[in-house]
Amino acid sequence: MKALDKYREIFLILKSKDFDFPEKQAEEILSYVLKIKKSQLYTINPEITKEEEKLINSIIQRRLNNEPLQYIFGECEFYGLRIKVGPGVLIPRPETEILVEEVLKRKEDILNIDIKILDLCTGSGCIALVIAKNIENSEVYGVDISKKAILYAMENKRINSIKNAHFLVSDLFSSIKSRFAAITANPPYIKSSEISHLHPEVKYYEPYQALDGGKDGLDFYRKIIKEAKNYMYESGFLFIELGMGQADQVRKIAKNCGFRILEVVKDLANIDRVMILKK
Questions:
Q1: Is 80 a member of any domain?
Q2: Which 3 state secondary structure label does DSSP give 77?
Q3: Same domain, 156 and 268
Q4: 34 to 6, 49, 64, 76: CA distances (angstroms)
Q5: 161 and 51 within one domain
């Protein structure tokens, strides 16, 4: 069977089950199994072996059970880095790249304060690793309460050959003794009552601990913003990813804790996605 024939088959199966972007998912499955670029499906249209077809069919079956492709493949891309993921660690989202971009825009201001940067709720380590790679003379520390997540982060440090990132298990600031020029955080921010209504591939596969932000979704914002000043230098920055509709409430929390709000950055869907605070 030719690759494009299999592409049409996968596309129709996923479309019939109402999967989002079935054409994109079909391309991703084929390029992963055949180890070729997506464009080569059309320019080369290679022949699929029986073994490759068997693997493709097993992936389709797992996908029909709503298992995320990132878990099936065991990795994803984030800001140009290869990030290993699996059960027990949150899959990096494209909108989180906005947070990274905002940090990198201000790297000269950050380094004028100090070279140390802290990433809370680091998960796979994706934010910490991108910052460390792109601010070469920095020292970036990523922390997470999950031991499994930290193991993934350490593996991602290894496979991306990034020396200036360091990972440790910590319940937010509990194991932190230092101060930082900047702190970043993509905390759990889903309301507890809303988790059961999330898409099956999120609620059944991704770690509950990385999703649950408490009754109103704001538990981690309160903890992080309240404590952050004790771990920041004067004029230090705090970059926080926001859930949909949370900007006004997080703004109030920040003001009550004495932070200056520099900017709230929207994502491509025009949702307030990243808040930048200054001590």
A1: no
A2: strand
A3: yes
A4: 12, 9, 20, 17
A5: no
Together in a domain, 119 and 195: yes
Cβ-contact 83, 156 below 8 angstroms: yes
Q: Does residue 70 sit within a domain?
A: no
pTM of whole model > 0.85?
Answer: yes
Question: 202 lies in which domain range?
Answer: 89-278
CB within 8 Å of 109: residues ≥ 6 apart: 237
What are the CA-CA distances from residue 269 to residues 39, 77, 107 (Å)?
A: 27, 21, 26
- Do 155 and 56 belong together in one domain? no
Half-sphere exposure of 23 (CA within 13 A, CB side): 0
What is the count of structural domains for the chain?
2
Q: Determine, yes or no, domain membership for 121.
A: yes
Q: Return per-residue pLDDT of the chain as tens, 279 residues.
A: 999 999 999 999 999 999 999 999 999 999 999 999 999 999 999 999 999 999 999 999 999 999 999 999 999 999 999 999 999 999 999 999 999 999 999 999 999 999 999 999 999 999 999 999 999 899 999 999 999 999 999 999 999 999 999 999 999 999 999 999 999 999 999 999 999 999 999 999 999 999 999 999 999 999 999 999 999 999 999 999 999 999 999 999 999 999 999 999 999 999 999 999 999
